[in-house]
């Protein structure tokens, strides 16, 4: 069995659907982080069978953590301070997504202009809509 040390200060992204940890790792740009990061894949879980897990050591919480509520509704964020759990919660889907998903509408300006940022805003129906062309996408679950 693989043993990974517990962290004293940082964030644990727990209960990631098995196989999606690397996607989240890249979307949070953790490959560019100067903090210690551990990505564990296919960890045994009593609740889910298997899961992925990311541990980020340090006092700085990575940017874009709000997108986790869109990516996977099973995720639990655990904030660790001085070796103890300070806060544990499930992130909620953000109101605005920037460059998380790409618009699939071939007539959207984002399909024509490659440098254009992809923005999706949460609609009252609980789905995301492209700010440019109104193309709708569902919340991932």
Automatic annotation (TrEMBL):
Q: Which residues form the Aspartate carbamoyltransferase regulatory subunit C-terminal domain?
A: 98-137
Please give the SUPFAM superfamilies that the UniProt record associates with this protein: Aspartate carbamoyltransferase, Regulatory-chain, C-terminal domain, Aspartate carbamoyltransferase, Regulatory-chain, N-terminal domain
Keywords, alphabetical: Metal-binding, Pyrimidine biosynthesis, Zinc
Which Gene3D superfamilies does the record match to this protein? Aspartate carbamoyltransferase regulatory subunit, C-terminal domain, Aspartate carbamoyltransferase regulatory subunit, N-terminal domain
**Aspartate carbamoyltransferase regulatory subunit N-terminal domain boundaries:** 2-90
A Pfam family per the record: PyrI
**Name this polypeptide is given:** Aspartate carbamoyltransferase regulatory subunit
């Amino acid at each position: 069995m693989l043993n990974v040390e517990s962290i004293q200060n940082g964030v644990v992204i727990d209960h990631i659907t098995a196989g999606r940890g690397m996607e989240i790792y890249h979307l949070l740009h953790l490959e560019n982080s100067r903090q210690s990061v551990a990505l564990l894949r296919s960890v045994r879980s009593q609740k889910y069978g298997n899961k992925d897990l990311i541990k980020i050591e340090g006092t700085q919480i990575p940017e874009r953590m709000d997108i986790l509520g869109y990516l996977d509704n099973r995720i639990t964020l655990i904030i660790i301070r001085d070796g103890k759990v300070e806060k544990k919660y499930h992130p909620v889907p953000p109101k605005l997504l920037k460059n998380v998903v790409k618009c699939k509408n071939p007539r959207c300006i984002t399909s024509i202009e490659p440098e254009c940022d992809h923005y999706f805003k949460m609609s009252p129906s609980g789905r995301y809509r492209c700010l440019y062309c109104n193309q709708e996408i569902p919340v991932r679950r």
